[in-house]
Design goal:
Layout: E1 11-12, H1 20-36, E2 40-49, H2 60-66, H3 71-78, E3 85-86, E4 89-90, E5 93-94, E6 98-99, H4 111-133, E7 138-142, E8 145-152, H5 155-175, E9 179-180, E10 186-190, E11 202-203, E12 211-212, E13 217-220, E14 223-226, H6 232-249, H7 261-276, H8 280-283, H9 294-300
Parallel strand pairs: 1-7
Antiparallel strand pairs: 2-8, 2-9, 2-10, 3-6, 4-5, 7-8, 11-12, 13-14
Helix pairs in contact: 2-3, 4-5, 6-7, 6-9
C-alpha cells in the first residue's frame, strides 16, 4: 500500500517507523527552507472530532478494494466489529443497550493502519482539488492531528490559501462522515521579522469555523514553537516537568527504606531523561540558538 502510493505521503504515525519526532523535524525543515526563500510560513492545525468511533464500516471495505487488497480481507472487514451493542453502568443504574456499528476501538492493534487507510482517499482528493484551484498548500497528518501549511511573502495571501483549503477539507470530511473539532483549530505564523503578532485574525466563521488570533507560542504534538524557532518555551517547560517527576520519585519505596541508587539511576534514565530531551532532534539542529539552554538541563542533573 505504501509502495503503490495509496497511503498519501503526508500521512505519518506508526507508518514506516514514523513518530511525532518525524512530524516535528519535517515541519521545522519546511519552515527553515521557507526562510531561505524569504517566505513566511503559516500553519492551520485541526483535529477530527471522535475520529476512531466515526469510521464507517460500510465505506471501509470499498476503500480496501480501492487499495488493491485481497478480497478476503475486504470480506473480513465487512463483518469486523459489526452488530455490537453497549450500555453504561453507574452504581445500580444500567442504561438500555444501544447499537455501535461504526468505529474502531481506541487501543486496538489495527487502529493506526485502519485510520491511515480510511483517510488516504480524502488526502488524495484534497491534493487534486488544490492542484486544480492552484492553491499551494502542504499537509502533515499524524493520526487524528492535521496541519495545513502555506508559505508566501504575504501573510494575507497565506491566510487566503488556508481559508480555501479549510473549506475544501470540511467538504471532503463531511462526505466521509467525519467532522472537525472546531474548538481545537489553531493558527500560527513563523517569521524572523519583528511585530509578527500584530496581525489580522483568520476568520473562518463564514464556513462554520472559529475566528483565530495569532499567539506568542503554539503547541503541536508536544513541541512548543515560537515564531522564530528559538524553542525557549519548549526547553524551559520540559526540564521543569522533569524536576517535578524527580521529586515524585521520593515517594517510591516502602515504610522501611527507599529505592537504592541503582534503581534511582534506572528510573532517571527511563522516566526523566526522555521527558527532558523530548524533541531534541527538532530544537538542537545545526546552528540552532539553543545550545546555551542546555545549561538548564545540566543544572537540573
Amino acid at each position: 500500500m505504501i509502495s503503490n502510493n495509496f497511503i498519501h505521503h503526508s500521512q505519518l504515525g506508526s507508518l514506516k517507523q514514523k513518530s511525532t519526532m518525524n512530524a516535528g523535524i519535517i515541519l521545522t525543515h519546511i519552515i527553515c527552507l521557507g526562510w531561505v526563500k524569504n517566505l513566511v510560513t503559516s500553519t492551520l492545525a485541526f483535529n477530527i472530532a471522535q475520529f476512531f468511533p466515526s469510521l464507517n464500516h460500510q465505506l471501509f471495505p470499498l476503500i480496501l478494494d480501492k487499495a488493491g487488497l485481497n478480497r478476503k480481507i475486504s470480506n473480513f472487514f465487512k463483518n469486523y466489529l459489526v452488530g455490537r451493542k453497549t450500555n453504561y453502568c453507574w452504581n445500580n443504574f444500567v442504561s438500555p443497550s444501544s447499537n455501535i456499528n461504526v468505529g474502531v476501538g481506541q487501543g486496538s492493534a489495527l487502529l493506526t493502519i485502519l485510520s491511515a487507510l480510511y483517510l488516504s482517499p480524502v488526502f488524495h482528493s484534497l491534493e487534486k482539488h488544490l492542484k486544480i484551484l492552484k492553491i499551494s498548500i502542504s499537509i502533515i497528518s499524524f493520526v487524528n492531528d492535521r496541519l495545513s501549511i502555506s508559505q508566501n511573502k504575504s501573510i494575507s495571501h497565506s491566510n487566503a490559501n488556508l481559508f480555501c483549503s479549510y473549506n475544501i477539507i470540511l467538504f471532503l470530511f463531511s462526505k466521509y462522515g467525519l467532522t472537525i473539532e472546531q474548538g481545537k483549530t489553531d493558527m500560527f505564523h513563523f517569521s524572523r521579522s519583528q511585530g509578527i503578532f500584530n496581525l489580522p485574525p483568520l476568520d473562518l466563521s463564514f464556513i462554520g469555523g472559529p475566528s483565530l488570533l495569532p499567539k506568542e507560542t503554539w503547541r503541536y504534538l508536544g513541541f512548543i514553537f515560537n515564531h522564530k524557532l528559538t524553542f525557549r518555551s519548549h526547553i524551559d517547560f520540559y526540564p521543569n516537568k522533569v524536576i517535578s517527576t524527580i521529586k515524585c520519585m521520593k515517594l517510591l519505596g516502602n515504610s522501611t527504606r527507599s529505592i537504592n541508587p541503582l534503581q534511582k539511576r534506572r528510573l532517571y534514565r527511563c522516566c526523566a531523561l526522555p521527558i527532558a530531551l523530548y524533541g531534541l532532534p527538532v530544537w538542537n539542529y545545526n546552528k540552532a540558538p539553543t545550545y546555551y539552554h542546555l545549561n538548564i538541563l545540566r543544572k537540573m542533573q
